[in-house]
Amino acid sequence: MIKFANIKHICNPKNKTTSQRINIGDYAQIWAIDILYEHLGIADEDVVRIPSFELAEYSGETLVLPFNFIRGNYSFSPFLSNDTLGFSSQIIPVFLGLSFKYGFWNFDDNCISYLKNYAPIGCRDYKTYHTLTNFGIQSYLSGCITTIFPRRNPDSQNYDTVYFVDVPESLRKFVPSEKFEKCKFMHHEVVLTKEALQNPDHSYDLAKKIYCEYRDRASLVVTSRLHCALPCIAFGIPVIYVNDYFAYTLDLMPKFIPVYDQTSYHKIDWNPKPIDIEDYKKMAITIAKDRILKTFEAFSYRSLHDFYFPLWKDGYSEYEPTLTGLERKLKSLFTERISFRYAVWGISSVAERVYEYISKNYPFARLVKVIDSYKRTDFHGVTSEMPDVLTNRDEFLTIVTTSNCAVAAKPFFEKIGKAEDQYFFIA
Prior knowledge:
11 helices; alpha/beta; four-stranded parallel sheet; five-stranded parallel sheet
């Protein structure tokens, strides 16, 4: 059966280093998919959690995986960070929001074909949309799914801390002094120890704790992190987005708030209001749910396919009926130099193999009758006939070549009193 999936954690616990660096924003995207599943009524225990480092080699049951990440994110090595693009064949992606880092714009035919197969592709920026469209890949501007986080209570009195999250040093001289009175500096790149990595839920829980702190305490968030700004906007927190340089990955941010770079820090409004994007959320959630369910339905045949496919997990060899039994039968009755006569019942590929085997190993044998209830045709110089031409006095061996023919032949032989040494069933 096809199941729904989400990524469990980014870090690879098999890494031999004593620590690993994670990006908190990666987990916001994972959390957003979990929120979508809540809207779909899919219980958490029914969602398969797959580590990102297994995306390319995964070999379990078929999974539908909503995906909202960037190609070139080295957390996904080797899936999105090398020259290939594609999940395991057992993973059916729903590309809700895809983007590409600089240096990852080389598309080979396999990559284009793969994306076309799972189109339409949601794009988090215009450059990605424009590039995929030029390759003939059906795409649309989707934004980032982290804008669907639920809005906080606007009336709480606990929102008293200004959070500066990975802000550039060049910004400091523009910040009003009162913003430092009760503030906290945060970083979204966190180093985890090897001990922490042994708990596969640690990274996810840590990220949720950080975002919940923003939700429950922030009076203002100032950040250079896309996946800090968007969830906080969704929470209903006033947000100022700053970055020394404007990158194409921020293309869609101005639909919500201004984007300030080092040439415009002096223009920052330091008392922004929270913005209401609830209507937008409804639209984004509806479209994402629709895409997930339609993908699930479109590939539902995979459940039936997966039931049978393990029969050939070690490779497929075309089935050929064995002639071992016939070989033993003929050796018990005839020598290679003897002349004997035989008939075949059922014109088929097996009948061809019987004829080839006897012609090669018993060159003095002769085909005298061909029986077939459905067609009149020539088979190696003998015209096929109906079964009623056979009698119990026949002085030749009748070889029945298929299981369908055997169903009719067995009661027929019993009816006419044909001796068992006068016939042989291949199937």
